[in-house]
Design goal:
- Helix 10 crosses helix 12 (269-282) and helix 10 packs across helix 13 (291-313).
- Helix 5 (102-111) links the parallel strand 4 (83-86) and strand 5.
- The strands form three sheets. The chain has a six-stranded parallel β-sheet with strand order 3-2-1-4-5-6, sandwiched between helices.
- The protein is an alpha/beta fold and 475 residues long.
- The chain is elongated and about 70 Å long.
- Helix content is 44%, strand content 12%.
- It binds uridine-5'-diphosphate-glucuronic acid.
- Uridine-5'-diphosphate-glucuronic acid binds at residues 126, 156-160, 216, 219, 223, 257-259, 261, 263-266, 268-269, 272, 330-331.
Length: 475
């Protein structure tokens, strides 16, 4: 290939659409490909089929420039592209922890026999270890171009809600390649971020594939670690927010990605740790990743615990109570409800006999389709109306900005569960709210400082009385 490579992107979900639109914004000609004709028409018309901040303007700019377009035609894509990125979904296989690679297989099997000239096929989908080696052997055997068609692996680390930034300015670019030609092609694609100083890490494809699943396993572990500490805080009267703050200031630990609360969900972390553990077991290394089952179990317990907190806040029972729920998306900045902890908690509370009114700034339509039994309010106030308990389950900024004085007049009982630790406990208590949060002491609990229960402790807190008398005895 000479000059700027022409690019295709197979799979137009969060990852593929962000990748296609961002590369078009860098000046490449990009063809997005999907088997879903309705999705392709929507994208071609400049409409994003999901919510992702900043992506729709980039999509429209790409379409206007003529550099970005979408198709369902594999032959057209094979003819067009020098570098083909595969970004299709790899969800969890129903009834098993393993990954369902059928979309990846269908994409590969559809594309490879059409590749007649030298090209690079680049896997970006998250796949369990061992996948890339098998496909790299099949590619030259299946493609008419023979060894001219080569496979490389270039995992994607973007977070939903930050897809554009994470694609254009990633922490690192990992290029898993078997040849200098493949490395040169990826360097050409990422010339602009590389010029801006983004580290380019060249590995073999099997390692690149591992980097992605290991990164997600580490991120999940960090979240479950602090949530496990929250469980211990609850029985000792310690405060998990102060604990996370103090731990995070150790540079070897770091505060990022260690927010305690309702735990992780979404289309990535939960299924990726299960797929990794499952593949490791198939390969005979199951023992090495046994701990990931515990990470998953800790995460699931958070959901049960928040249901328990809701019951406590609602006065000891859920049957016949009204519960207001703020947030159903798996995280703020997204309308994604795949394995959403918030939506699961809302549905469980409904199943336990409460009436549940939910509000979310972006994910209402998606949630309504899956859980029509919930009531869907038009605002924060609507969800709170006459509630016996109000729950904050997704940390949208509009929820942390909610006015406790106004809401106090709307609810039936002033009881709040702050499952994501976004509210100021002292302020809410000052408006008469009964404040509950996982991993934080209730007023009067053994570790709670007088007047500062469930608030971040002052830096130089008074030592408890027992410690003072010990010090006195020592001098
Ligand atoms: C995750 C990874 O962060 C990305 O690097 C990766 O590319 C992506 O999966 C993927 O495999 O495609 P994402 O699922 O978009 O990205 O979201 P995160 O920001 O990692 O959050 C995941 C879940 O963990 C959310 O439910 C969030 O609320 C929760 N979380 C996150 C916490 O409970 N505490 C934290 O400190 C951080």
């Amino acid at each position: 290939m000479s000059g700027r490579p022409r690019l295709t992107v197979f799979g137009t979900g969060y990852l593929g659409t962000a990748h296609a639109a961002c590369l078009a914004s860098l000046g490449f000609e990009v063809l997005g490909v999907d088997v879903d004709a309705a999705r392709v028409s929507a994208l071609q018309a400049g409409t994003l089929p999901f919510y992702e901040s900043g992506l729709e303007p980039l999509l429209r700019a790409g379409l206007r420039s003529g550099r970005l377009s979408f198709t369902t035609s594999y032959p057209a894509a094979a003819e067009f592209g020098d570098v083909h990125f595969i970004c299709v979904g790899t969800p969890q296989r129903p009834g098993s922890g393993g990954a369902d690679l059928s979309q990846f297989e269908a994409c590969f099997a559809g594309l490879a026999p059409l590749l007649r000239r030298p090209c690079l096929v680049v896997g970006k989908s998250t796949v369990p270890p061992g996948t890339v080696v098998a496909y790299s052997q099949r590619l030259p055997a299946t493609a008419p171009a023979g060894p001219g068609a080569e496979l490389a692996w270039n995992p994607e680390f973007l977070r939903e809600g930050h897809a554009v930034d994470d694609t254009l300015r990633p922490d690192r670019i990992v290029a898993g390649v078997w040849s200098d030609r493949a490395e040169a092609a990826l360097r050409a694609v990422y010339a602009e971020p590389l010029a801006a100083g983004v580290p380019f890490l060249v590995t073999d494809p099997a390692t690149a594939e591992m980097v992605k699943v290991a990164a997600n396993a580490f991120l999940a572990t960090k979240i479950s670690f602090i949530n496990a500490m929250a469980e211990v805080c609850e029985v000792t009267g310690a405060d998990v927010l102060s604990l996370a703050d103090a731990l995070g200031r150790d540079r070897r630990i770091g505060a990022d990605g260690m927010r305690p609360g309702l735990g992780f969900g979404g289309g990535c972390l939960p299924k990726d740790i299960r797929a990794l553990a499952s593949r490791a077991a198939e390969l005979g290394a199951g023992e090495a990743l046994e701990f990931l089952h515990e990470i998953d179990a800790i995460n699931q317990r958070r959901r049960t615990h928040v249901v328990d907190l809701a019951r406590e806040a609602a006065g000891g029972r859920l049957v016949g109570r009204r519960v207001g729920v703020l947030g159903v998306a798996f995280k703020p900045g997204s309308d994604d409800i795949r394995d959403s902890p918030a939506l699961e908690v809302a549905a469980r509370i409904r199943a336990l006999g409460a009436r549940v009114a939910v509000f979310d700034p972006a994910a209402m339509d998606r949630a309504r389709k899956v859980h029509p039994e919930l009531d869907y309010a038009g605002s924060v106030l609507g969800a709170a109306r006459d509630a016996d308990a109000l729950l904050v389950l997704t940390e949208w900024p509009e929820f942390s900005a909610a006015d406790p004085g106004v809401l106090a007049k709307t609810v039936a009982r002033r009881a709040i569960v702050d499952a994501r630790h976004v509210l100021d406990a002292d302020v809410w208590r000052s408006f008469g709210w009964d404040y509950h949060a996982p991993g934080r002491p209730a007023p009067g609990a053994p570790g709670a400082l007088p007047g500062r229960a469930a608030g971040v402790r002052p830096r130089q807190a008074e030592p408890p009385a027992a410690a003072v008398s010990f010090l006195a005895a020592a001098v």
